[in-house]
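Researcher: Go.
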Amino acid sequence: MTKHFLFASSSVSSLLLLASIGNPAFATSFTGTPIFPEIDQYSTLINGDPTDVYYPVISGLNESTPIVLLLQGALVDKADYSNYAQIVASYGFTVVVPNNQRTLSAPGGLSFSGLFPEQDQVNEVLNFMTLENNNAASPVAGLLDTDSLGLLGHSFGGAVGIASTQDECFFILCSEGYSLPEELKAGIFYGTSFDAANTGTIPPIDNEIPTGLILGTLDGVADPAETITTFNQLLNPPKALIEVKGANHYGITNADSPRDPVRPELEQAIATETIGRWSAAFLRAHVLDDVDAWNYIYTPLGDEADDNVEVTAVPVPEPTLSVGMLLAGLLSAIALRNRNSKPPSQ
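Model: Structure:
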């Protein structure tokens, strides 16, 4: 059964939709299918980390794409996310996927090295991509909206992402220090919880940006119950939880992995497309203020169109509006639509 917690009135939603009619900003709004079918990729180094960058081929000279950082799962190579990254990029984002090598110290003096993301990457990637945008030799020169950053993450990387929605440096998830950048607009994470230290307790999460979680119902690594608890501990809406039926922990990667003892029932390509599409919808809703993407997440539209998911979505409660304010808003939206539809004067 679909679960929705919708505090915004239908009248407010109608106003938002009407206000968007005729607005060029929504010419490439969310429909549930890729907006930019052609994706390019290049490789670079960010603070010493080998990094793959996926970006849409855009014909419009005045269009730009937000930057999106994908925080990898522990010991999962960046190449394993190429399909997912391209799906998200096809909805109008430049997706940055680093291999972050570092050493973690465990209790008892043990340490181990490998691919482990960290909060420090958020500002490092933002700063680097801002330079790339102004570098004439870069493939993405002039393509980026450097004032808009989104986050993606898988497993351990999802925990790093959740930590990064808060203005705090968390043990294990952060190395040197972290300050939440004003450019960070939203984040959505797969197969994760906020118990990276395995304490058995998920604390309240004072997220300062819209935060989404996606889980596979057959995840044998990150307990779906802990993902749901993490969702409930997010203090500040908007927030969303998307449950992908039949996907396991590696539904987000190019291929399944025996590291999850549970085999998926949902075909890998379908799982990855589903996770990518819902990730992109959430980011478009909150990074690009795409009304159609917002409705896809926060009304039954998206849930009813996708048999493979169950959605719980909590938007920001809307203040009570008077009838006069509603009528004024409706008349203003209709006037805007009519003005945009008039032929030019001779």
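Model: Residues 268-287 form the longest helix (20 residues).
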